[in-house]
Amino acid sequence: MESFTIRTPCSSANIGPGFDVIGLALSIYLELRVTVDRTKASSEHPLNCRVTYEGEGEETGEVSLDPSSNLITRVALYVLRCHDQRAFPVETHVHIVNPIPLGRGLGSSGAAVVAGVMLGKEVGGLHHLDDSRLFDFCLMIERHPDNVGAALFGGFVGTYLKPLAPEDVARVEIPLSEVLPAPAGGLDTGERPPEPPHGIGHHIKFPWAKEIKAVAIIPNFEVPTAKAREVLPKVYPRQDVVNVQHAAYCFASRSALGQSPPDPELINLAMQDKLHQQYRQTLIPGLEEIVQSMSPSTQEGLLGVCLSGAGPTILALATSNFEEIAEKVIARFRKENIDCKWKLLEPAEGTKVIKT
Ligand SMILES: Nc1ncnc2c1ncn2[C@@H]1O[C@H](COP(=O)(O)OP(=O)(O)O)[C@@H](O)[C@H]1O
Ligand SMILES: N[C@@H](CCOP(=O)(O)O)C(=O)O
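A: This is the predicted complex of the input protein with adenosine-5'-diphosphate.
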């Protein structure tokens, strides 16, 4: 028997104006505890894989234990099938321990995709796949690079999709259902799925000041990311797009979140968004008021507030008074009859494989 653990952090995408670009890996970790029996080339389990699960959504059965439909094992099968391995090559038990809340804007699906790609690499013995190539595979599944970039590489990252050649654009736009036919077990026509083009994604790491912590206020309802992307406009007014230039100035040129000690006014300015939060207000009652009313001038210790990813979690960056800040947001959600829990989080390292 051989065993190892894959550990992947959750993430908060956008941090205000960095829509689909900026991601921050944070300290809640998805773990895959994997056992492989290399003496058995086949088993009674479909696709040679048994999945067990504990954690978020366990009671509701939201996460499938069928290896052909579970997101993590489907992603692993995608990587394997791109390398002519139709199923898990040896009998594999994947025990998923998932404390990342599902559908709350903390990158649970991004973590699942990154962990799944890493699982495919490890069980398939695909040691030639470096992190940059694994990023390509992640981007075939989750087409916005911010969460998967943060979860794979760790820390505070800027990510982007490189301009592609026309033939690669055609390949990368292959619908997800063709990359990952569901259920994966039903697909086995022997055909290879479309492989990712090389070097689709790129990332850079930004500095992060050690004083800055992240307060995540997590409402007790889900907003599926796909739904929260549908409410966004296709075309934006020019003045709103100029806001992105301000963000670039604050994030990149002066690295607002990397300066120590942090400058609350600069960070608050850097976190102003015009591209997604106002449109998502329709899905998240109270969001507009929370984002507009909370600022460093009215709350000691606060640096800025934003929607975490596609929501509904609110992320407050702060240096002190964490509980007081969380309680203010919780009180506003309570007016909408929404209960919340909150967590104090820190930037996290990227995905690790730990041999056990
Ligand atoms: N650990 C996991 N194992 C399997 N599926 C997962 C896991 N984490 C997330 N998912 C899938 O991703 C969905 C949530 O994705 P999404 O709507 O993008 O929200 P989030 O903001 O949490 O990423 C879940 O409903 C589930 O289908
Ligand atoms: N940039 C994406 C990020 C989605 O993050 P998630 O954690 O909600 O999946 C978006 O804003 O749609």
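The mean pLDDT is 90. The CA atoms of residues 164 and 170 lie 9 Å apart.
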